[in-house]
Amino acid sequence: xxxxxxxxxxxxxxxxxxxxxxxxxLVAAVVGFVWLPLQHPGERFKxxxxxxxxxxxxxxxxxxxxxxVRADYLTTSVEIEPQMLGGASxxxxxxxxxxxxxxxxxxxxxxxxxxxxxxLAGQYPVTIYKELVDFKTGARGxxxxxxxxxxxxxxxxxxxxAYYAYLPRVSVPQPSAGEPPRIVASGAPLRxxxxxxxxxxxxxxxxxxxxLEGQPAIYxxxxxxxxxxxxxxxxIGEQMRNIVRRMTADExxxxxxxxxxxx
Amino acid sequence: xWTSRRLVLAHLWFAFGSFGAALPLGEWQMFIxxxxxxxxxxxxxxxxxVTAHGxxxxxxxxxxxxxxxxxxxxxxxxxxPMVGLRWAWAGLALVAVGTVMAIVPVALGLASVLYTFxxxxxxxxxxxxxxxxxVVGSWVWVALMSINMYRWKRDNPGAPxxxxxxxxxxxxxxxxxxxxxxxxxxxFQIIPVALGWRSTIDAGLARVFFSWTLHAIVYFWxxxxxxxxxxxxxRAIGGRLFSDTMGRIAFILFLVVAMPIGIHHAFEDPxxxxxxxxLHSVFTALVALPxxxxxxxxxxxxxxxxxxxxxxGVLGWLAALPWRNPIMLGAALSxxxxxxxxxxxxxxxxxxLNATVHNTQWITxxxxxxFAGAIVIMYFVIAYDIWPHLTGRALDSFDxxxxxxxxxxxxxxxxxxxxxxxxxLGMPRRMAFYDYTDPAIxxxxxxxxxSVVGGAIxxxxxxxxxVVLARGQTxxxxxxxxxxxxxxxxxxxxxxxxxxxxGLWLGLMVGLTIVNYGFPIAHSLVxxxxxxxxxKVGERW
Amino acid sequence: xxxLSTSDEGADRGERTERHWATAAVMILALxxxxxxxxxxxxxxxxxxxxxxxxxxxxxxxxxxIESNLGSALEPDGAVIVRFIGQQYSFTPSxxxxxxxxxxxxxxxxxxxxxxxxxxxxxxxxxxxPGYVSSLGARFETPSERLMPCHEFCSVxxxxxWGRIKIIDKAAFSRMAAERRRLSCVD
Lengths: 263, 541, 187
Hints:
Shape of chain C: elongated
Number of helices of chain A: 12
CATH architecture of the largest domain in chain C: Sandwich
Shape of chain A: elongated
Strand content of chain C: 25-35%
Mean pLDDT of chain A: 91
Distance between the termini of chain C: 81 Å
Radius of gyration of chain A: 29 Å
CATH superfamily of the largest domain in chain C: Cupredoxins -  blue copper proteins
Number of strands of chain A: 0
Strand content of chain A: under 5%
Structural class of chain C: alpha+beta
Low-confidence stretches of chain C: none
Oligomer: heterotrimer
Radius of gyration of chain C: 24 Å
Order of helices and strands of chain A: HHHHHHHHHHHH
Structural class of chain A: mainly alpha
Order of helices and strands of chain C: HEEEEEEEEEEEH
Largest sheet of chain A: none
Largest sheet of chain C: 6 strands, mixed
CATH topology of the largest domain in chain C: Immunoglobulin-like
Low-confidence stretches of chain A: none
CATH class of the largest domain in chain C: Mainly Beta
């Protein structure tokens, strides 16, 4: 039985299908890799080969000729990776406990403050670590905290973070705050405000965003107001400043009161 | 002789059961984000639902329909018991295990990453492993389709492979190849991160891999519908298939060109060279061709039926068609939705027009119209046609069937037409709620509300569909006539080898993939410093 | 039961119609590609022609995407470069200021996951993929204020990620640019 050969130049299906496909690919390639890139309004290529390489997707980081504008204030120097500081060892927690003895005056014996300083017990480790680093570098200003962290090493700060994260948060069975105010539950989308819980833990947690429940109301309000004026500016990429600038004073008060009452 | 009856029935009940579960989720989503409901207090519920609805409707439901229908075609087109029945059951078991494994973490809120995965967002590893198992189960089906066809060819040398089988195998090869992209993304990028073996992932490369799968998967979903156009509709309405050859060419074109065009889903992505975006857009235009050819062939085949029934005149034959036949009705309604949905697709295919609609609700409206509309209505048609042969009982609730098909069609139009419109108005996708009180968005409220009504009609239609099938389980027993597929006007006695096998076409498909995807993938792999930290979801305190 | 009589003449006519249909289809599709290509050439409506990388972990530490360098910069040649970033769940600057009648280049990247943006009422539409820099050219004719939502699912706060863009008169923009090197319309 004669078997018709497919892969043969005499087979019209073979030649036509491959020929047409190749022709289309070639024309498209010439247009897409040569003609169009050379006509790109924003680009000046150094010739055809440069255009082809760029259009293929080879990485061509533009040499920045423009000067970079620097801020006249310090921003955070911390590089956040979401899984950093997870899985602290018992030794680290122990060392942190020792270091934390000097913090109890304001932050309480078990990390639960009697004053208007933040409760640190059960706070996310990344949050504690980042704020300590920022206090030390001056990215976050505090006349009280700055001298206290001046002699902390990076390992010390990680240990403190591990210790406080390990401490239990206070919680009572019934949250006494009632329904969250609208700004907390749903944010205000067209003002670019997402629900607080999207980052601060009730819905999902974003690395370095603090756990807010049970924090003193006056502390929360002061911090929000500081973000709003830019006095506090250690939030990466202005992400908190973006949000609080569009909040009203009533919303700031309501959010602070709500979180303070939830514990 | 008919050995896979229970196998096919199991696939299709699983398919339609999962469809029935996912359908109300979709309407709930529509309702929750519309002006008719207050903003949901926990937006994560919405995204969880989108993940569940999308995963089921994209990965589970159409895969099972294709598999079940494929096994049906194997035995009835090749007219002999299928080879590998045990393997087929094993494949179904894998799909079932994978489905459960994937849905449990989603239901618990541990994997609200949407069915498109979206790394560097990473969910629970069992979600992804479950999806992989579903795909592996379907690859068992691919292997069996291929083996059965080649055994038949070996036993019938020189004879033309029956067209339904040829088309089915083309669809299965397309699926096997297109699934590779998402498989690479899942196996080598996402799952290692989800299991904690790595903490960074190249999001750009992952999107390129996913684009490999994302377009052709819709052609995989489309295959059973198109196979039904060619092989069921003409017979069911008393006509003939206008051209067997053109049908084969259409499926061959799908096999070759459906896959290496995925980058049109990434026109606005920064990690892909502009040359490849253009190349993909040109080949995307080419994949419109087999659909256009299909429209001709099917209309001509239907015309034959009309004229055989006494229709006369240029358009008079339309009136002579058996409109009370659910198959006729379903196919016609499908064609209407295919026309509109296909036009939308042509708009999406060019970078210039795509820029206006990318990631707006236009896109969601488009794929619901074309997939949930034109294609899924043909899944119903297939079920109505073959159910008596699966159950050995009559399926005769014709009034219900017609009502079900009409409500699906009307619901789909009411759902998707306003949906396209709000996309043009700039409404972004996938938000759990919108502030319709703001004047900038207020114009969208009416259209979104209309879509909610459309969705409600669809839920009703889905219920009707399941009622029809359920009735078919308890109807009186019948002995249906031997199942037949449509016959061509000129059934081929011999065929050129190119139209009777797949070597050439697979070679072209792989070759085009290398040309269109090889460099973008390769250079992403070797470029240092593009891996970014993974962001795990679902970790609440 | 009727018999199908395939007269040769009828079959030939059918095949000719089929050929005409297929030819017309190919020509229409080719025409669409030509029109799209023409639009690209004539309007400059093309995707970015180079791939650039940026590390999301260090955007805020150095390089063109530090917070003080974000915003609209008037270049010596009169063009404007707008640099902004996206993160969960806002754009920075959250209100972008641009002039009319000026060639504008948006340069942007993500600090964490995949985001995207569109500008309401325009065809400006772009993805922000962490690890890569997206850029797009644009030109605005009339002053207006528009919404700029994130349109790619970026996790549970996505529905709150809406930015704004304000297009102001070219002269007013130049006056502001004389006083500050990076402009925005953040309060």
